[in-house]
Amino acid sequence: MIRLEGIGKEFGDFTAVKELSLEIPEGKTCVMVGPSGCGKTTTMRMVNRLIEPTRGTVYIDEQDYKKKKVEILRRDIGYVIQEVGLFPHRTIAENISTTPKLAGWDDKKIKKRVDELLEIVELNPEENRNKFPRQLSGGQRQRVGLARAMAADPPVMLMDEPFAAVDPITRENLQNMFLRLQRKMKKTIIFVTHDINEAIKMGDQIAILKEGELVQADTPEELLANPKNQFVTDFIGVDRAIKILDLFSTDEVMWTEAPVISKKNMQEEAQKLIEKGEKGIPVIVEDEQGNKFWFDLDELESGQSLEEIIRPLEITLEPTNSIKLAMARMLEHNNDAVLIIGDDDEEPGILTLKGIRNYVYRICASDPGEKVEI
Ligand SMILES: Nc1ncnc2c1ncn2[C@@H]1O[C@H](COP(=O)(O)OP(=O)(O)OP(=O)(O)O)[C@@H](O)[C@H]1O
Ligand SMILES: [Mg+2]
Questions:
Q1: Ligand 1 within 6 A of CB of 41
Q2: Nearest-angstrom CA–CA distance, 114 and 129
Q3: Of the candidates 246, 225, 200, 214, which has an alpha carbon nearest to the alpha carbon of residue 34?
Q4: Ligand 1 contact via 2 beta carbon (within 6 Å)
Q5: Which residue from 41, 44, 45 has its CB within 8 A of the most atoms of ligand 1, so it is best to mutate?
Q6: Does 40 contact ligand 1 (Cβ within 6 A)?
Q7: How much is the pTM?
Q8: Whose CA is nearest to atom 18 of ligand 1?
Q9: How many angstroms separate the CA atoms of 254 and 315, rounded?
Q10: Which domains does the chain have, with CATH numbers?
């Protein structure tokens, strides 16, 4: 666990970071975002004491980090520098082995670790270990930067725009590779980016900074649902509704207790539901072959016949799929509902376009600063 407690930095009479407090739970990734010059790199470099804070301190696992020797602190904190910063006159292997060498590992152990790390970041050791940075592509250099930061297997990592300055496809590959790795490594990470989409994708927690101050720190879901003020809303962007689609899974929005009625007797059974006072719910219709259809009870009440309004329920997704994927499937099939089937013991659910619309609208319609339950 890392806890920044009221840390701040002044350069002469310029305050780069005001009193900033932030807690990053063990094994989680906190992404710091904010406009250029808002103090992200300064904050990060205070965590490994490359910059001494003017005020405040940092607790790592409840211990004040000033009590630790700086060399030990830095060994335990991997650092991916903004713009990668590989040593140009050293080979890839030499670059990666910087920290293990300082820690006094023997040559054999270092060589083994270098090859292992190259494999981890998906670079062929044979082909790459003796190359120089200029012989690699931008994306490959970023992989080496990551390998170097992970060399001594530090429990904490600071990553300053680690995947910037590469094309979007390479960037996505790097992000996915890192997410796969982090699922296993479970390091405590502070990750800096300019890109709110990257923050939403990579972060368990997002901290938004503005002019050296923390504006909001929350989970991506909370941040999108409850931006604290207009600055955060603007930073998230005009497509907040689309970003929300990506973040929530189908099981969070679906109906789990939609009535299932038989196609043979659907007229009577639908009528019974109306008499019971049900309203605006999706109803699943099943024929004798097990084919499924559906309709919305409100449509029936508007006077249309049931034969006219039932439509096939032919798309199936899983509870963990995003509602964005559900939307995409609906659009592709010109359909307005999907069936959600999980494990055997889970009730199937139905996710409708109307359900998604209401859910996203409820989140987006609130004013910045207003709390919406999600
Ligand atoms: N050594 C220094 N001396 C004086 N001012 C500095 C120094 N280092 C940083 N600053 C100033 O502090 C502010 C914050 O800089 P910092 O590098 O932390 O920003 P950043 O959020 O990382 O920006 P970017 O997104 O562009 O990397 C900037 O205005 C910068 O000019
Ligand atoms: Mg920076």
A1: yes
A2: 8
A3: 214
A4: no
A5: 41
A6: yes
A7: 0.83
A8: 39
A9: 14
A10: 2-238 (3.40.50.300), 252-362 (3.10.580.10)
Amino acid symbol at 364: C
Could you give the 3-state DSSP secondary structure of residue 178? helix
pLDDT tens sequence across 335-352: 999 999 988 777 889 999
pLDDT digits 0-9 by tens, 121-148: 889 999 999 999 999 988 899 899 989 9
Nearest CA to ligand 1 atom 19: 37
Report the amino acid identity of residue 3: R
Mean pLDDT confidence for 11-40: 96
Q: Is the CB of 53 under 6 A from ligand 1?
A: no
Give the pairing of strands 63-64 and 349-352: unpaired
For the stretch 359-363, contacts whose Cβ atoms lie closer than 8 Å and that sit 24 or more positions apart, written own/partner, are 359/248, 359/253, 359/323, 360/241, 360/244, 360/245, 363/224, 363/225, 363/244
37 CB under 6 A from ligand 1? yes
Please provide the DSSP assignment of 9-31 as one string: EEETTEEEEEEEEEEE-TT-EEE
Mutation to probe ligand 1, out of 14, 20, 42, 214 (largest number of atoms < 8 A from CB)? 42
